[in-house]
Amino acid sequence: MWLRRLGFALAVLVLAGAAALAETRVALVIGNAGYTALPPLKNPVVDAGDIADSLRRLGFTVTLGTDLGRDAMTKTIAQFETEAAQADVSLFYYAGHGFQIDARNYLLPVDAALAGPQDVARWAVPLDAATAGLAGGPGVHLVFLDACRDNPLRGLGDPERVAEPDGLARVGDAAGFLYVFATQPDNVAYDGLGRNSYFAAALLAHLETPGQDVASTLIAVRRDVLAATGGKQIPWENSSLTREFAFVPGDESAPLDTLLWQVASAAGDPALAEIYRDRFPDGAHAGEAAAFLRTAPAARSLDRPLAPSLADALWEVARRLRLRALVEAYLARDPEGRHAADASQMLATLPPDDAETPERLCERLATHPRDATASIAGVPFAALEGHARAAIAACGKAAAAHPEAPHFTALLARATAAAGDMTAAERLYRDAAGRGDVRAMNSLGQLVEEKDPVAAIRWYERAAEGGGADGAINLAVALRAGTIVPRDDRRAVALLQAAADDGSAIATYNLGVLAQDGVAPGGDPAALAFFRRAISLGEPRGNLAAAFLLEHGEGVAHDPAATAAYLLAGSASDGGEAQAAICDNPLAWSPETVRIMQDRLARRGLYDGPLDGRIGPRLVEALDLWRMGGMLARG
């Protein structure tokens, strides 16, 4: 079983087109920021506008209200409930001040004048009153609340209310509802430091992902917010949905880095290859992009339009990554295309490249690769070493300006370590870890592991308790090794399972490996499920692992068609392991599996040899073409 030690997950490489939505979708989006008697908020109005735009692209009929007074807010909500009563899907998004009293949640209009708890009934809008009219209806009801700021009643006259928790309380027991909170109950969510709040930015990055059920969308949102805030903010949801729902029905698309590389390669476009290199410096195709740029012409004429499949793929990457350079690239290459209006609208919402604040620069220069989000690329340590001084300058300013955000101190610590000052880096990591940053906890454990392995274990434990997947993985590795702490396979599996439940692709993949090896329960059938899940979470090597189990697994039905699909997916999206496994180990794959691959590549116009189930030079060449843009260029 040669593959069992490869230690490899990602998404099925089927580009989803825009699904025709037969269902009726309505949404009410409210952003309240300009409060007259309370502290104004930075992001809600902009967040609401951007969310409304995204929902319109997703087929929702949207009512947008910003800076609503109480009368306008209650009237707008009542109208929405009437519209939603007959809709298949209703969505209510609120950004603004919100609080709880006696475990009941309230949303605040901008004209609210709260001198104390006695004013709540007059001014605040109870959340349950806003959603009561939807209960009992046949549709799916989605409620998004980016409203968990500090309790505005704290200290206003009633000493019994001083201890009232911040944030919003747990709610929801009616069937058909999904409540999504920007942060966990009784906790505070933060305004973002850029255009959008952390929660809205993550939601915008994942709402339009093809083929992703809403539960998977929210896992991706939670993962991004946790990474962007160092674990200080963790979105939370409560679901009583009675059926599955996806914002974009259909098949999952290819991973974003693979889609972008396929477009750049198929179009022979150096500018797109440069964007790939900048956004995915550690991506599966980074080496190929670098090689392409060394030999490609300096510029490409834009008077030749992209093929429709390439234009659609480029727009999908641009709208999901929300990178200005990519949106501009799409408009330059397809100015009259069917997505041009949406692209122009999105471009107006994205900050210009020269509007880089210390906070944005710090994140761009120093973010850890495992903390990469849709809009922030991770930076390998070796690359950070090359610009450590610039990162230290930016992160130092950001950390000083935002003492409430230990995340910037953790990034400053990483930049300081890259500059070679490990003593100062450890001090900064301890500062950030002491203020709750889970990335700092894990990094501190790695920094001290050699000199004080017991202390490292304590830091991994704290990171795992705070929701840090890497802390859980490192602790699981230590428990499996049994050298620093007693071996405990059961706890190691539990730690990996918790990290997997929170959306860690690596933890999910490792569970598959442990299931194969008999350490985690379920054997090969469970391993296959883990590998498939890891694929959907973004680990491309899982394709090869899944293919091997479908070809040779014990207790897993032999499935040549699925095996071929996973091998092709891996060949296009991983670091070259799947293609090597096909070409260097021809006897590992059945003739039927190979014949299906040959047929699928032939249908794309990439393979012109016989459908004989044998791996030869023509199939090797076809796989090269498949990886270098052939997935999108034809068919």
Give the SSE layout.
Blueprint: E1 25-31, H1 44-57, E2 61-66, H2 70-84, E3 89-95, E4 98-101, E5 104-107, H3 120-123, E6 125-126, H4 127-132, E7 140-146, E8 177-181, H5 198-206, H6 214-228, E9 236-239, H7 256-267, H8 270-279, H9 286-295, H10 308-321, H11 324-333, H12 340-347, H13 358-366, H14 381-386, H15 388-401, H16 406-418, H17 422-434, H18 438-448, H19 453-465, H20 469-481, H21 489-501, H22 505-516, H23 523-537, H24 542-552, H25 560-573, H26 577-584, H27 591-603, H28 617-633
Parallel strand pairs: 1-2, 1-3, 3-7, 7-8
Antiparallel strand pairs: 4-5, 5-6, 8-9
Write down the overall mean pLDDT: 88
What is the number of E strands? 9
Radius of gyration: 25 Å
| Global structural class | alpha/beta
Low-confidence sequence ranges? 1-20
**What global shape is seen?**
globular
Number of continuous helical runs: 28
Portion of residues within helices: 40-55%
Beta content: 5-15%
**Biggest sheet, open or closed, and with what strands and sense?**
6 strands, mixed
Strand order of the largest sheet: 2-1-3-7-8-9
How far apart are the termini?
35 Å
